[in-house]
Structure formats: C-alpha cells, structure tokens
Amino acid sequence: MEPFVQSNSTNTMHLQSWENRFTGLLAGFTTRVGGTSRTPYASWNMGLHVGDNPDDVVSNRRRLAKQLGLPFEAWTCADQVHGTTVQQVSEEWTGAGRDSLDTVIPGTDGLHTNQAGVLLTSFYADCVPLFFLDPRQRAIGLAHAGWRGTAGRIGEKMVEAFEQAYGSKREELLVAIGPSIGGCCYEVDERVIVQIERTTKQWQQAVHPTEPGKYLLDLGQLNRLLLLELGLRQEQISKTNWCTSCRTDLFYSHRKEAGKTGRMASFIAWQQEGVRKDS
Ligand SMILES: [Zn+2]
C-alpha cells in the first residue's frame, strides 16, 4: 500500500500509517500544487535557494505550517549540500532558515530532534527524502539522499545519530522512503555507477543497464537495500511508489524540468502538548 497518501483538501501527502499510529506525529511531503509561486516555480515552491521570489516562498511555507497547526517559528531547515553531515536540532537551531538563507543550518543534509513543536523540513526535486522515527524515544528525523548522499550512507549516519543522541535501538526504528525520481526515469552514467557499486553487494538490485554506459538507477530501492544491510527488517521500512519525474503535475523534477524548478518539502514534527492539528 502506498505510504504517502494525498489529502484532497490540502494538496499535501501524509505518511498516513505513521500519523494514525502515533498520536501527535505530523509527517509527510508537499506537492507543487496550491501555492503562490509563478512559473517555473508554480506553485507551492518551498525552496528559497532556487531563484523564486522569497516572499512567495515564505508565504508558501507559512501555509504549510498553518495547515499542520504549528507556528511558523517552528519551521527549521538546513542548507543541503549533498553531503552526509547530520545535526541534532535543539532550542538554538529551532526556527533556523525559515524565512532567510542567512539563518539556515549550514552544510547539513540530515536533521533530527526529540523535542515537540519543532518542524523539521528539507527540500526536494528528485532526490530521495528519508524519514526516521523512534516511537519509544520520540525521536524524529529527515535526511536528503541524492546519489551522493546515498553513496555516502547518510541513512546509516542517521541511524547512528539516533543511537548516540537518544539511545535508540535500530530494531525499533521506522524509516519511510518518500517520493523521488524513480527507477523508471533516473538515467545515470558510468561516473555515478562506479560510486553506486561500492555501496552494497546487492547494488545490482537497484540498477538496470539500458544501453552501453547508461543505467536506470532506483535510488529509493538502493536506500532500502542499505537500510536492510544495517539490520533493519522489511517491516520497519515503507517505500513510496511515486516518481517525481513521471508526475510533474504533482511534483517538481529537477531532471525533467532541466534544473529550473521549485522544491517540495518533506516535514516531520511532534505537535506541542495541548495543541490539536484540527483546532
Ligand atoms: Zn518515473
């Protein structure tokens, strides 16, 4: 069953099974529909770094925070660099980057926290959004995994960060792999494949050769294989079937739109005590 379920009223995809199971959890992925940005960012662009009008982006972000029932001050994000640095978000970082690139958490592709009322976000147009949850320790996290981050094992860095920061047990973690460019559309060359070959012995399960020197790479599947190799079980991992390049009606696709486009946001947060999302 598709884990990311589109809500007709909000144009946001929610990780419905997680939200239903864990009271107070908000987790999901935005679509490109329903915002104020203009072409080529039309219309619900969440990225301040892509050349869109910043006022539109901030308005788009505010709309999501409002939908989620969180104050905009909770919105926290990082400057993503296709690296593997992960950062714990405590009070001093809460709210970083919400309305300006000047205050963003620098050089970071993974965020995690165990504090309620912190809205972790990260931005996508084809790369793989990873969502992490330790229900027992109430720890949550997001990681941005393009091919570089995936090959650099950012998923493993997140699992280790949860173990160190919260005493998480990896057999209790849940991970969701969100909408990205799929194995149907993501063509790569030898330069990428030589890096992918080093990630796991199972790498061929995520790669399909098409013509000499060309391959279709399923990055979501590769992340799944890497998580299984860390000792997570199948049932701990949910993986989407949405492809951002197949569905540019719903998603931005850096590849399909030749680099000039907006960004969706992945998000995860615990509601603050006493605040209900439908209030
Ligand atoms: Zn596709």
UniProtKB/TrEMBL annotation:
An example Gene Ontology molecular-function term: S-methyl-5-thioadenosine phosphorylase activity
UniProt keywords, alphabetically: Hydrolase, Metal-binding, Transferase, Zinc
Catalysed reaction, written as an equation: inosine + phosphate = alpha-D-ribose 1-phosphate + hypoxanthine; adenosine + phosphate = alpha-D-ribose 1-phosphate + adenine; adenosine + H2O + H(+) = inosine + NH4(+); S-methyl-5'-thioadenosine + phosphate = 5-(methylsulfanyl)-alpha-D-ribose 1-phosphate + adenine
Domain of life: Bacteria
Chain segments annotated as transmembrane: none
InterPro entries registered for this protein in UniProt: Cu_polyphenol_OxRdtase (IPR003730), Cu_polyphenol_OxRdtase_sf (IPR038371), Cytotoxic_necrot_fac-like_cat (IPR011324)
Cofactor (UniProt): Zn(2+)
Pfam families in the cross-refs: Cu-oxidase_4
Keyword Hydrolase: yes
SUPFAM superfamilies: CNF1/YfiH-like putative cysteine hydrolases (SSF64438)
Function: Purine nucleoside enzyme that catalyzes the phosphorolysis of adenosine and inosine nucleosides, yielding D-ribose 1-phosphate and the respective free bases, adenine and hypoxanthine. Also catalyzes the phosphorolysis of S-methyl-5'-thioadenosine into adenine and S-methyl-5-thio-alpha-D-ribose 1-phosphate. Also has adenosine deaminase activity.
Family that this chain belongs to: Belongs to the purine nucleoside phosphorylase YfiH/LACC1 family.
Designated name of the protein: Purine nucleoside phosphorylase
